[in-house]
User: Fold this.
Amino acid sequence: MQRRELMVLLGNAAVMPLLAPLTAFGQEANDQTPDQMPAPPTELPSPEVPLPPERVRRLGVLTSGDRHDRDALARLDALQDGLAAKGWTHGRNLQIEARLSAAGDDRGMTQTAKDLAGQSPDILVAVDRVSAEALAAAAGNIPVVFVNVVDPAGVGLVKSLEQPGGNITGVGRSEYGASISWPEMLKLIAPNVMRVAIIRDPDATTDHGQIAAISDVAPALGIEAFALDADSLRDLERAITGFSRTPNGGLIVTIPESSSRDRSTIVRLAARFKLPAIYADRQFVTSGGLMSYGPDQKAEYRLAADYVDRILKGDKPADLPVQTASGYQLVINRKTARALGLNISPTLSARASELIS
Assistant:
């Protein structure tokens, strides 16, 4: 049965019990004399008053990328799906305005955040640390929910994970469970790797914990780990080119925003120098990278949608502890593996959440 037909039938069924008593009462009255007629009611029923239209709330979303960035659009879709599951539908009771700012353009991100906050939405959503910091500075009293921020307390977005304080909370990546698995995953797909360069942003304090976690587990796997600073694209190319001159190398690319900004360059250099690489986010794999291991992004956005729902219904961000999505996803690009001459073992294939051809 179609949903519209079901609604019509339910509507008729709801009306029928109300009509039947009135009809029966009228038929019974026609058979009685005036003396037998019941006394009229002392109060007439109030006419049915139509319900007021549902209030439309306004949500602003700030993300990095451009209108042709499939990953940026996928993040927005995931957020909308999570909101729809909570009863919030764009165009019915929710108006969503998404703004894209070029990755790496800090000045543009700041201005875009000001413009978005200036529209006076009911709530704002940020999809990474840079957009979260920009919205936090521009939002004033407008609540902000962030997603995909490593160590939000460490970078100063919240006072603590348990009690964020202020008007911002969300879904963070505050632990390093994935970090300690990256060398193992890389070794499973490329057993000959003995040296690993960890691409890091020297200005990102969150990198230090990830690098420490990687360095702790790498020796047991027969891997020597190095940190490569990437202040700019030129530095990045120079560092990877120099590292590639020694055989049996591989790459680990952490989560900071500079890595997302330089995604195409990193993937291109890894392919050029035949360097097996593992990334923190699936977006690198869809862009041609070898493999990624990190939190389930759809789960992260479902958690963010839950917080948006709760805040719109009256909860305060200061009272909502920062959450972390449970579970990790391993994504492997089979085409890239073939190009690198690597075999995906049945064991690794079975562990993969997704195999991209």
The chain has two domains: 57-175+297-326, 179-295+329-356.
